[in-house]
Amino acid sequence: MDQNEAGWTFFSNHGHVYFLLATHENIVLREVAIKVGITERSVLGIVQDLEDAGYIKREKVGRTNQYKIVPRKTLRHPLESNVQLKDLVSLIKVAKGIDL
């Protein structure tokens, strides 16, 4: 499907950033911005939101940051609040053929 066919997606930019950080351990935020299609500044804001809410942890490694997901966190909306993000990430990894 062409991206221009639909003006919306099922996941927010926060979701896209989270899934990229969860599935690509050494990705830099510039790459995240390119893949999601938003500015690096927007990615920084989203990463800060995710960190503040306890969904990711930032770890300084040398001159770069690595981001680790917090595995037991659940989706935020009451309709899906019983779904752990680690399970959703695992499903996405399998669908994309990424080793678990």
Write the layout of secondary structure elements.
Elements: H1 13-23, H2 29-36, H3 40-52, E1 56-61, E2 64-69, H4 85-96
Antiparallel strand pairs: 1-2
Helix pairs in contact: 1-3, 2-3
Strand order of the largest sheet: 1-2
Low-confidence stretches: none
CATH fold call: Arc Repressor Mutant, subunit A
Helix content: 40-55%
What is the residue-mean pLDDT, rounded to a whole number?
A: 90
| CATH superfamily descriptor | Winged helix-like DNA-binding domain superfamily/Winged helix DNA-binding domain
Plain-language structure description:
The protein is of the alpha+beta class. It has one domain: Winged helix-like DNA-binding domain superfamily/Winged helix DNA-binding domain (Arc Repressor Mutant, subunit A, Orthogonal Bundle). Helices cover 44% and strands 12% of the residues. It contains four helices and two strands; from the N terminus they run αααββα. A two-stranded antiparallel sheet has the order 1-2. Helix 1 packs across helix 3 and helix 2 (29-36) crosses helix 3. The mean pLDDT is 90.
